[in-house]
Predict the 3D structure of the following.
Amino acid sequence: MVFSSRIYVGERLILLKVSGNVLLEDAVQGYASIFEAPEYASGLNALWDMRELMICNIGIADIRKLVSFIHKLSARRGPRYKAALVTGHRVDYYLLTSYLVMIRTVGNVHIRVFHQDMVAARYWLKNESW
């Protein structure tokens, strides 16, 4: 799995790009790395570009582990932020939408899934209220 991130301080945005085959350990390590960036600040919104990723290969047990990990780091993320998840495959869009039931338990994040539309996702992050 390839994981990259870039922080846009002026937009209060973290752009995270994930591609290839997903391994839970890689996802956890990549997500944790954003906290080490010097420009990181709590409350940044996250734009996840997952258009080159096949999420349907991830098992429900790994999703639960990832949700648990995200919950543990929620205090470092800040009190409220938004995350836009952009998928490249229709099946991944539906899977992520159904996984949101578990992810919403994290509490301090408002998540929305988009199918291939990075422009709409970025607009939602910048303009629509929580």
